């Protein structure tokens, strides 16, 4: 017979289980935004709960077996008791395991559907927050990747229309002028020759940009060498002295006389040339400064700068801050993309930061 001591023992176990459950819920409630949103915490809580649940179920099952089964069928009751114990031992972890699996199954299902949509070139898919930190971190990175792919896809689609427009404008002008001259509508004057030459140079520049970008993406077999940076930059400034004067820009150097940079000569020349051309075309600055520190090369101006939202995309192919397609402020948007390719080919990194005023290009180099 079951005495009062057993019921007291059962009551103690039940109270302990209740206290443990309340403590767990209190902790999860207090730190709801920290540990509870972790998958590992939820599974650990289920595993922790399995102990008290089993301790409660076993005495209860003993009571049921003692009162119902064993009194009626002694031999069969033994098998029934064994079956109940096995059911408790296996059923409790199974039920809790299914609950734990639910925490994993739904996010994985959504992730799988998002990947399937991505395979169908659907770049608009976004994964919602699940309230589980491990999955939310992965979903956030996936959403960022989708955003970048969507941006790349837009640039790729714009390439055809942009290139077509940039090539079509000078070609149309040239064909119109030559046709009129051929039909005798316009005389062949120096002004028209200059116009035709100007449009031909525009075509040549576009083709040169495309070729330069393609070349920049190819591995450079040229060997790096030690370059005295100050005279190198002085030569660059002298080359653009007339353009700088016309734009009203003063060039300054903040580079030590003995500063030496180990780089491919042609790549470094193209990098600084493109940055200088970018400044001349777009900055509206009055001053440009080239500065060298231990492991950085800074190319900055005091011009109008660019919107903050454009900074991450300045080095993207075919990206233009000014979406106009005029020759002065348009173009294919390959100049800075070429710079990035050349910079990375040297094992360096480049970024753009707001200069307040102006814009600063920061090259992290191995001097």
Automatic annotation (TrEMBL):
<feature type="transmembrane region" description="Helical">
    <location>
        <begin position="80"/>
        <end position="101"/>
    </location>
</feature>
<feature type="transmembrane region" description="Helical">
    <location>
        <begin position="6"/>
        <end position="31"/>
    </location>
</feature>
<keyword id="KW-1133">Transmembrane helix</keyword>
<dbReference type="GO" id="GO:0005886">
    <property type="term" value="C:plasma membrane"/>
</dbReference>
<keyword id="KW-0472">Membrane</keyword>
<dbReference type="Pfam" id="PF00512">
    <property type="entry name" value="HisKA"/>
</dbReference>
<protein>
    <recommendedName>
        <fullName>histidine kinase</fullName>
        <ecNumber>2.7.13.3</ecNumber>
    </recommendedName>
</protein>
<dbReference type="GO" id="GO:0016036">
    <property type="term" value="P:cellular response to phosphate starvation"/>
</dbReference>
<dbReference type="InterPro" id="IPR036890">
    <property type="entry name" value="HATPase_C_sf"/>
</dbReference>
<dbReference type="Pfam" id="PF02518">
    <property type="entry name" value="HATPase_c"/>
</dbReference>
<dbReference type="Pfam" id="PF00672">
    <property type="entry name" value="HAMP"/>
</dbReference>
<keyword id="KW-0812">Transmembrane</keyword>
<dbReference type="InterPro" id="IPR003661">
    <property type="entry name" value="HisK_dim/P_dom"/>
</dbReference>
<feature type="domain" description="HAMP">
    <location>
        <begin position="102"/>
        <end position="154"/>
    </location>
</feature>
<keyword id="KW-0808">Transferase</keyword>
<dbReference type="InterPro" id="IPR003660">
    <property type="entry name" value="HAMP_dom"/>
</dbReference>
<feature type="domain" description="Histidine kinase">
    <location>
        <begin position="162"/>
        <end position="367"/>
    </location>
</feature>
<dbReference type="InterPro" id="IPR050351">
    <property type="entry name" value="BphY/WalK/GraS-like"/>
</dbReference>
<dbReference type="InterPro" id="IPR005467">
    <property type="entry name" value="His_kinase_dom"/>
</dbReference>
<dbReference type="InterPro" id="IPR036097">
    <property type="entry name" value="HisK_dim/P_sf"/>
</dbReference>
<feature type="transmembrane region" description="Helical">
    <location>
        <begin position="43"/>
        <end position="60"/>
    </location>
</feature>
<dbReference type="InterPro" id="IPR003594">
    <property type="entry name" value="HATPase_dom"/>
</dbReference>
<dbReference type="InterPro" id="IPR004358">
    <property type="entry name" value="Sig_transdc_His_kin-like_C"/>
</dbReference>
<keyword id="KW-0418">Kinase</keyword>
<dbReference type="GO" id="GO:0004721">
    <property type="term" value="F:phosphoprotein phosphatase activity"/>
</dbReference>
<dbReference type="GO" id="GO:0000155">
    <property type="term" value="F:phosphorelay sensor kinase activity"/>
</dbReference>
<keyword id="KW-0902">Two-component regulatory system</keyword>
<keyword id="KW-0597">Phosphoprotein</keyword>
